[in-house]
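Feature request disguised as a bug: please show the residue count (559) next to Copine-6 in the output. Example input:
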Amino acid sequence: SDMSDPEMGWVPEPPAMTLGASRVELRVSCHGLLDRDTLTKPHPCVLLKLYSDEQWVEVERTEVLRSCSSPVFSRVLALEYFFEEKQPLQFHVFDAEDGATSPRNDTFLGSTECTLGQIVSQTKVTKPLLLKNGKTAGKSTITIVAEEVSGTNDYVQLTFRAHKLDNKDLFSKSDPFMEIYKTNGDQSDQLVWRTEVVKNNLNPSWEPFRLSLHSLCSCDIHRPLKFLVYDYDSSGKHDFIGEFTSTFQEMQEGTANPGQEMQWDCINPKYRDKKKNYKSSGTVVLAQCTVEKVHTFLDYIMGGCQISFTVAIDFTASNGDPRSSQSLHCLSPRQPNHYLQALRAVGGICQDYDSDKRFPAFGFGARIPPNFEVSHDFAINFDPENPECEEISGVIASYRRCLPQIQLYGPTNVAPIINRVAEPAQREQSTGQATKYSVLLVLTDGVVSDMAETRTAIVRASRLPMSIIIVGVGNADFSDMRLLDGDDGPLRCPRGVPAARDIVQFVPFRDFKDAAPSALAKCVLAEVPRQVVEYYASQGISPGAPRPCTPATTPSPSP
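Example output, currently without the count:
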């Protein structure tokens, strides 16, 4: 085969952190669908639409079940899942009795709307079906159960060696290397791995290697795998030594017990067909075959991990008097200020992952009633016993109520609020479980006054289950913030201790002024899944078991 020098060019896929997208499968069932006429039950079908680029697009649909008012559909609806996007979904149920392929007014049985984030964070959602006029469609409901497409995140570590390979070289021994191919559905072969060359050795031991189960066999343990052994030649005309086939299932079974190895005869078909006493061209031994689970963000979310979201708002005087239209805190009836826009965009996504939908919200840098002393972590609802607001709308209402009652002042001290959120994170850490990960959203107009204390607080927090998102509002110089972000090298506290991991994401709001709110959310939240996985993995904490979903027991009649 014509190929580049195996010692040089070929770079296999890096062991990916499977983070950005994960595939999610939704299973759908309905209960008590309306009959369109008294004689026949409906033939229901569910259409799934996703809101993207300002419009609703059909992405998947179930099969049609005949004469059934409480259908359990077998066809799964598969979607790519992104934490940092809202991903609104609509489920339309319609009666496909006369072969109808889309819901018309007379075939429409009801619909519901929710986000993919809500479904994965609850793993099972049951909602009433609504008619076009917004009224409920009788007592009919739809139930959606989410499962992550499992098995795609496993990695396999393999170690091979060979014995008594045929010698292909005149003046020295063969220089063997091995290639592994998987057979695709169309019977074509795809190269999966090529080992290094072991020089001048008929009994080579190749280096152990690690690759995803997806790339080895497309996550199908029965898929045929081909192994080809060659003698390397610098001219690129490598001499074929022999081959054998196997499957991943066979490889796992053959090495299941401790110390158990598996071996194959390495066969050259030409020799086998021509030579009378041909046995083999050597043997290849699989000395190790171990599978390691790589947990994803979704594994943690669906295992019951909540994202606990806290907001901190900068009320220092540099924002400008809120009564002035130039102020960053101006409450104009025309359009929400940048603080409100950032809060809505980021909070709107985070609230899907917090079961109680209650968010502690704090302010810093203001003089607050009754004594008008400066505070750097006051509850914006002025209830120090319970700083939580109901949903993001509650945070916004508290912000609007609080602004006229406080005096914007200074300095811009951020450490107190970081340390405040670190307290519950410290308690969570001591449980040793993945149940609550804290995200602190800091909205600020600029230069941090307590830089040394803030660096110390962040380095401390980097060892806890928490992340910090800083959105810079206004046109100030944000060079401090970029330093905290740690993208230019690890952040260190003044004593020189480095952060355990990068937990700060800084974004200037001005870069997103004219973009859709979703663009800001996407940018600031994109790092969170990696930070969650990195934290729990570094602590050796596995996700909780996915919460059991009780499948509907009634089998549905298929057409």
